[in-house]
Design a protein that fits this description.
This protein is α/β, with parallel strands linked by helices. The chain is 32% helix and 13% strand. It is built from twelve helices and 13 strands. Strands 3-4-6-9-10-11-12-13 form an eight-stranded parallel β-barrel, surrounded by seven helices. Strands 1-2 form a two-stranded antiparallel sheet. β5, α2 and β6 form a beta-alpha-beta unit. It is globular. The site of flavin mononucleotide has 21 residues, from α10.
């Protein structure tokens, strides 16, 4: 029976444990490029024991960023910074994963702490957003959306393939397509955002065409030996939006197009949601277990999984295969070591580099003096 600290192998890649640092946009890039900040952030999480480490969503086109300070993978000049990030992650014993995304009608945003609003297309840091249909999201996203033509959709698929090739050149070993959170992939899937009348809209099969073609374009350049995965907006929590049954069907379809693993998240295609249990522990786990069972594909989920005993239990009960941690990874770079200690694992420091762990093992000092209180049992 696996536990949180069991290795996990997918295709030719083995993670040292079941703990992934979830992608998190940090608004610290310049011209889409990563810098020392990202090396510090991601290298420290790899050194802290995470098995899989995602930098933030990487935009496949310039207008696919959330804001002008977000990272991209749309230009060869961005490869150097990304390579430095993958090198430190690997050096610390972890596997580097890239999340390819396009924010669609949710782009052109200010940094969240500078005001939750979208910038107009004529603002120096704004642009004309694009989506499956000319439907404005509403709420804080107020500006008209350009409906993509078929030629523009094909360009986006080519951009996915070029981005995948750059991810490979930069040394990533795991690739996730971001089709969640109201961004472009999520909007093509949702009837709330996609009201096209051509082959990319209407019935569920048509609303999945964008994703099938994107997967095919990427799989053609991304090697078979490396995992190709997807984060899907699996539920809009709105009666007129994506229903979870749609997602189960879609994941089965995409499995036939080279999908190796499903990371399930929320649709976020509308603010008019009903009943998202934001504060429930592990509220996506049950959905993940259903996909794992019915589609027969390995699964990971995020959302409120930072309690070690719970994270360990969902792996032991084989409900999901990987635990994705967002905010807990921001709060504690050593979350895996801390969790190993809480769960009474033998030698928690084996998760961090040996030349660092040696000091902690051989010079522990009195109980509690390393900065963590004694474990209560
Ligand atoms: C600061 C921040 C930035 C995020 N950026 C992304 C992102 O770039 N891509 C993505 O798929 N999810 C993003 N998320 C969502 C997280 O990856 C994760 O799914 C979510 O926070 C739930 O997990 P948690 O409960 O462990 O925080 C972000 C979350 C946070 C807190």
């Amino acid at each position: 029976m696996p536990d949180l600290f069991s290795p996990f192998t997918l295709k030719g890649v083995t993670l040292r444990n079941r703990i992934a640092m979830s992608p998190m946009t940090m608004y610290r890039a310049t011209d889409g490029k990563m810098s020392d900040f990202h090396i510090m952030l991601l290298g420290s999480r790899a050194a802290g024991g995470f098995g899989l480490v995602f930098p933030e969503q990487l935009a496949i086109t310039e207008d696919g960023r959330t804001g002008t300070s977000c990272a991209g993978i749309y230009d060869d000049d961005q490869i150097e910074g990304l390579s430095r990030v993958t090198a430190i992650i690997k050096d610390m014993g972890s596997v580097p994963a890239a999340q390819l995304g396009h924010t669609g009608r949710k782009g052109s945003e200010l940094k969240p702490w500078e005001g939750k609003r979208q910038l107009p297309p004529d603002h120096p840091d704004g642009w004309q957003t694009r989506g499956p249909s000319a439907i404005t999201f509403g709420g804080r996203y107020t500006f008209p959306v350009h409906e993509l033509s078929i030629d523009e959709i094909k360009d986006i698929h080519r951009a996915y393939a070029s981005a995948a090739r750059r991810a490979l050149d930069a040394g990533f070993e795991w690739l996730e397509m971001h089709f969640a959170h109201g961004y472009l992939g999520a909007s093509f899937f949702s009837p709330l955002a996609n009201q096209r009348t051509d082959q990319y809209g209407g019935c569920l099969d048509n609303r999945l065409r964008f994703h099938r073609e994107a997967m095919d374009a990427v799989r053609a350049v991304w090697p078979e030996r490396l995992p190709l995965t997807m984060r899907l907006g699996s539920d809009d929590f709105n009666v007129d939006g994506v229903q979870f049954d749609d997602a189960v069907w879609a994941i089965g379809q995409l499995k036939d197009h080279g999908l190796d693993f499903a990371d399930l998240s929320l649709g976020m295609n509308t603010d008019a949601t009903m009943g998202i249990p934001w504060n429930d522990v592990g509220f996506m786990v049950e959905r993940g277990a259903r996909v794992r069972q019915e589609v027969g594909i390995p699964v990971g989920v995020s959302w409120n999984l930072g309690i070690p005993a719970f994270a360990d239990r969902v792996i032991r009960e084989q409900l999901i295969d990987l635990v994705f941690l967002g905010r807990p990874a921001l709060a504690n770079p050593h979350w895996p070591v801390w969790a190993a200690r809480e769960l009474a694992q033998n030698d928690p420091f084996s998760l961090i580099p040996e030349d660092w762990a040696w000091w902690l093992r051989s010079r522990p000092g009195p109980e509690g003096s390393l900065g963590w209180p004694p474990v209560q049992r």
